[in-house]
Amino acid sequence: MKLFFQLFTAALEGAGPETRFVFELLAAGAARAASDAEGYRAEALAKQFRLSQKLVSDALGDLVRLGLVVRERSLPGGKGRPAITYALSLTVVQTLKVSGAVYGTHTELLECLLSGVPIETEVPGLQSRPAKQRMTVTKAGKPAPPGASKQLSVCNRLLFATLLVRADHCGVVSGVGGPELRQLTGFDAASLKHRLRRLMDLGLIRRYIPGASSSIFARARVSNTYFLNLNPGFGCPSHCTVIVHLAWDRDAKRFTHTDNLRDDVVAYSIGRSDWELSTPLCVIRFLVGQRSRVYPVLQIMLYRYASFLLSRRWSALLPGAYLWDDELYEMIRHDFRQPTPKAVGDDTTAEPGSREDEWVEIIEHFYRLTHEIAHEFRNRFGQASFLPLDGVQVSVLPVADDLGYKAITLVVNSPPAGTKAFVWLKEEQRGVVKLRPPTVESGVHLQNRYDFGLLTPPKSRAGQK
Questions:
Q1: Element (H or E) spanning 93, and its range?
Q2: What is the Cα 273 distance to its own chain's centre?
Q3: H/E segment holding residue 70
Q4: What is the mean pLDDT of each successive set of 10 residues along the chain, which is 465 residues long?
Q5: How many CB atoms lie within 10 A of CB 361?
Q6: Alpha-carbon dihedral of residues 353, 356, 361, 366, nearest 10 degrees?
Q7: Any alpha helices (H) in 398-454, and if so which ranges?
Q8: What CA–CA distance (Å, rounded) separates 44 from 22?
Q9: How many angstroms separate the CA atoms of 133 and 148, rounded?
Q10: What is the C-alpha separation between 212 and 297, in angstroms, rounded?
Q11: How far, in Å, CA of 78 to CA of 162, rounded?
C-alpha cells in the first residue's frame, strides 16, 4: 500500500516533508472528488487543514517548481491584485484518476491523520506544564512548532502515515530500512532518527527492534521492525485489541528461546563441560560467532512465524500437537542462508549429503521453536475462554527484553464486537486467569506499560527498572 505522494516519488525528489504532506492533502482531496478539483487558495488551505499559512505557501511554491502544481491568476475584476490560486497539474490529475484507492488496510486511521482534525499528543508520564506557561514562541521569537502546544506536527504525521501504509493488520512494519524511509519522507538521517524517537516517546511506535546484518540471514541485512500503536486515540474507533497475560510461576518463564540459544552457543564456544546443551550441535555451529544484536532479531523472526501459526491454526494448537504447514516451513527456509561448504584444505570431513541433512535439521529446529512459542501463547491466552481468538489475525508484541515470557502480549486484529481495546489477564493459579482492571491502556501503571511492550521507555530511562 502507498500514500498518494508516493506515486510521484521521482518528481518529489529533494522536496521536504512539509511539501510532501501538503501534496498528500491535495492529492487525497482530488482523488475523493467526483470531478476535477478546482483551484486552491493558500489562505483557504491553511484554514481548512489548520496549518500555518507560511508552511502552505512555501509548500505550494515548491510544488509549482517541481511541476506538480500550477499557479493560476484570476482575471482582474476590480481593484487590487488578481487572486492567485493553485491547481494540481494535468499529469497528477490523470495519474490520480487511474490509481484508485491506495491507503489499504488502515484507511480510516490514515484519513484521520492526514486531515485538518486536530490531533493532541503527549508523552505518557510526562507532567504537563500549565497552559499559561506553555511555550508559544521559540527563543528566536518565532511561532512555536505544533508540538509545543501538544499538537502532532506535520513532520510526525507524515512519518507515522508512511509507516502505517507499510504495516500489517496488527501494526507490524518490517522490511523498510532507513534509506527507503529517508527517500519516501524527505528527512535526512539525523532528522529521521529524531522523528522516530519522537514517535516512540509519544507511544505511536510501541516497540522498535533494530535490524542486523549476519551471515545466517538470506538477505544481506534484516531491516528494522516497528510495532505501531493502532489505538492511538485520534478519535478513530479501535480496530484491534491488546491482550496481556501475566504468568503465575514467573521464575519458570524467565527466558526466551533465543536466550537459551545464546547460552548454548556461549557454553559450546568456551568449552564448558558442565553445561548440558539443549540445542542440536548443527544449530549451535550455525550461530557461533554471531553478534549479540542478532539474537533479538532472531527472536522477532520466531515471533512472526508463531503469529502466522496462531492466526491460521489457533483451534488446532492443542497441547502436544505438532502441526505441519508447508507455507510456514518455506517462510523459515527462505529467511535463512544455508552455510557454504568450507574450502579445500579446511578442517572438515563432512560429505555433501550430511551438509544437506544438517541444513534440514537447522530449519526444522527453528520450525520446532516456532511451535513451542505458539503453544506458549495458545495455552496461556486460551485460559480466557471468554476471548474468542479462533479465526482472527493475531501478532505477538515483544515485551521488555529482560522479562522472558513472564509477561506476554498479543495484538488481535478486528476482534469480536464488544471486546475491549485492552485486556489484562493475570494467572491466579496455574491455568486459572483473572481479568484485571483497568480496561484502557492509559490506566495501566507506566512501568507496566513499558514492561508489557505497550510503550518504549524514554531514552534517558531505557534499561532502568
A1: helix 90-99
A2: 42
A3: strand 69-73
A4: 91 96 93 70 92 95 96 68 86 89 88 87 74 54 58 94 96 94 96 97 96 95 96 85 96 96 97 95 97 97 98 94 96 95 57 85 98 97 92 96 96 84 94 92 95 91 49
A5: 14
A6: 180
A7: 446-451
A8: 13
A9: 11
A10: 7
A11: 45
Q: Determine the residue type at 127.
A: Q
Please report, for the chain, the start and end positions of each structural domain, with discontinuous segments joined by +: 1-75+82-102, 142-237, 240-342+349-461
- Supply angle C-alpha 64, 66, 68, rounded to 5: 65
Would the CATH topology of 1-75+82-102 be identical to that of 142-237? yes
Q: How far apart are CA 395 and CA 410, in angstroms?
A: 6
The model carries a pTM of 0.90
pLDDT of residue 416: 75
Structural contact between residues 36 and 91, judged by C-beta atoms closer than 8 angstroms? no
Say how far apart CA 44 and CA 116 lie, in whole Å.
12
Side-chain half-sphere exposure of 316, counting CA atoms within 13 A: 11
Q: Report the candidate in 71, 81, 91, 130 with the shortest Cα–Cα distance to residue 11.
A: 91
Overall fold of domain 1-75+82-102 = Arc Repressor Mutant, subunit A (1.10.10)
Which three cell numbers mark 324? 505441519
Cell 505518557 belongs to 124
Determine whether domain 142-237 maps to CATH 1.10.10: yes
Task: Label the pairing between strands 212-213 and 422-429.
Answer: unpaired
Q: What is the DSSP string of 212-270?
A: EE-TTBSSSEEPPEEEE-S---SSPPP-EEEEEEE-SSGGGG---HHHHHHHHHHHHHH
**C-alpha span between 256 and 293 (Å, rounded):** 15
Q: Give yes or no for a contact between 408 and 399, defined as CB atoms under 8 angstroms apart.
A: yes
Find where cell 506557561 sits. 133
Burial class of residue 303, CB neighbours in 10 A (0-12, 13-18, 19+): buried
Question: Nearest to residue 103, comparing CAs of 222, 275, 236?
Answer: 236
- The one-letter amino acid at 193: K
Burial of 310-329, coded b for 16+ CB within 10 Å and e otherwise, reads bbebbeebeeeeeeebeebb
Residue with cell 527466558: 255
